[in-house]
DNA sequence: TCACTTTGCTTAAACGTTTAATCGAAATAA
DNA sequence: TTATTTCGATTAAACGTTTAAGCAAAGTGA
């Protein structure tokens, strides 16, 4: 039982395949009378015709596919974002292809190549470290893309970011205003710009309030050994004379790992140690007390990303756009100073 | 700057396009001498030739695309599973297309149609309620698929399930053995077979131990109003004379919502009320005490699903397979009887 | 009436592959 | 030498569309 093609419809309607194509695509320069239109549509209906997208794509050079490259689709941050992007993409007639890079350049490049080979109309990308050449190649190939979550200073590309520096400084100042003197920052060992900005925001927050920064006030964590590094780091730092009275985790995964450890240590939050975290995840909801966290505007990030990409796909020359969205600080109990 | 095609390679290598195709696909009936092979490969390399998958698909009727239909990619259960499936699919040379149905038949059917229109080689499907006709249609179209997580008794299809009934009965009996007398089951208001089996396992667990089941011992929740129904349900049931001393949540979302509520009510777990949950999610890790939960073999579900599908795609006549995998009961503190 | 435009529709090339069929030259066999 | 086989490669059709170009018939204006 073969698929029914435009040819079969043409035969049944008693017209040429060109006419069928024109009718079915509404490419009617007012040269096709209603009668023919009806004939064709009826035939298509009766044969239950479904257009062959592959043939269509071969001819039109459009696939109506958008590729999404995230670090890990199993990470709630990215899966929530992916869901938003999926909906918006479908809305605009695209199908979404998703790939996880694991923060690994080789995998990243393989994904990009795969999407390029599949001739995705455009890409939404959370770039990894050292992906500059790969992105440059993409630009050379004239495949439209927009960067999300992260951005690469060396690359002039459309992007959607959040105010990483400012919101981090805000978190820091919030903790300072609450009266915490010795805040520990837990961050990734990374060169990713958006994460460096979070650290910089922290540093500038301290500076602004004339607080000195000592060396072990920033705990750097290897992304591949989060639990190990955080457990060890917290163990040692909590035993120093300069024991921190607050911790600021700069990602959801760091926060989850850190909170587990603090709980295991039997520390009361915020009485023994205050906590602020980045991102929002279901996990925070089960923490015994409401957490203070930075809420990213995921809905905006996702929908704007798709819309920007859509525009780029359809009009070759769009001016470069670097959108900066604002994250919100949600203040819970975890960052409240204990009453003396 | 046009894409380089097989034609360009042929020209550069000084051979016909057929030869190029044969060489590049290793379709060599030992009729092509090494010299030509080298020539072609060199030319392809130098021109940086990338095959056009669309043209390839048009000709071969294979897309090397697998479609995955889940209820919601933002649900950790599905995003974890999706990640596993993505990796295994890539391993076998497929690209993964993901769609979320929101447990809605119309969206479900739209997704299936979209994947069919894109001529996915096969589908991995978590079917929704009332999707029978849609799945039958898929069978008629001879598109290979395997069902995961759920299954539809009316449809004879390949599937991968877990032992929902038995593991639920095991959870129930575990609670009974711990000494809990009045266990509340929190379940979805649904006809989905795998969820009914969880309830049935609970009922049979009680029966086996000669415990009677009274009406308000099962709290049915509308999936679209989880928080509302659970909050109200727990409020009322906790105020009855037959106050439950343990709760068994039959999904991760139900558990997260319920645990939030129990915490808000200031109840101590397990001293005031014991808890067991289904599925595994990051959120459980931040709950103050280790939870008792049912751990599904996600890695096996995902990899076996892809492998089964792969086999079905490549050999038209594979016997129907209904794999049943075993979930594990992880016993934490949340289901421990308080010492009297 | 004739020239020209409009209308309605068709023809045919093209998109980039795969692959069966074919073909000439060289090698082997008779 | 001639017939046959093998080797190495090519030709051309096909996959299912889109779309520029073309064409016959009808309509219009002078």
In short:
2 copies of one chain form a homodimer. Chain A is α/β, with parallel strands linked by helices and 340 residues long. Chain A contains 13 helices and 12 strands.
Q: Could you explain the architecture of this structure?
A:
- Chains A, B: This is LacI family DNA-binding transcriptional regulator.
- Chains A, B: Pfam families: LacI, Peripla_BP_1.
- The structure is a homodimer of 340-residue chains.
- With 340 residues, chain A is of the alpha/beta class.
- Chain A folds into 3 domains: 6-51, 434 Repressor (Amino-terminal Domain); 63-162 and 298-326, 3-Layer(aba) Sandwich (Rossmann fold); 164-296 and 329-335, Rossmann fold (3-Layer(aba) Sandwich), CATH 3.40.50.2300.
- Chain A is built from 13 helices and 12 strands.
- Chain A has helices at residues 6-13, 17-24, 34-47, 53-60, 76-91, 105-117, 132-140, 164-178, 193-208, 226-237, 252-264, 282-285, 298-314; strands spanning 65-70, 95-100, 122-125, 145-148, 159-162, 183-188, 218-221, 246-249, 274-278, 292-295, 322-325, 328-330.
- Chain A has a 6-stranded parallel β-sheet, sandwiched between helices. In chain A, strands 7-6-8-9-10-12 form a 6-stranded mixed β-sheet, with helices on both faces.
- In chain A, helix 12 links the parallel strand 9 (274-278) and strand 10 (292-295).
- In chain A, helix 2 (17-24) packs across helix 3 (34-47), helix 8 (164-178) runs parallel beside helix 9 (193-208) and helix 10 (226-237) packs across helix 11 (252-264).
- Chains A and B meet through helix 4, helix 5, strand 2, helix 6 and helix 11 of A and helix 4, helix 5, strand 2, helix 6 and helix 11 of B.
- Chain A binds a DNA duplex (30 and 30 nucleotides) through residues 3, 5-7, 15-19, 21-22, 25, 27, 30-33, 36, 51-61.
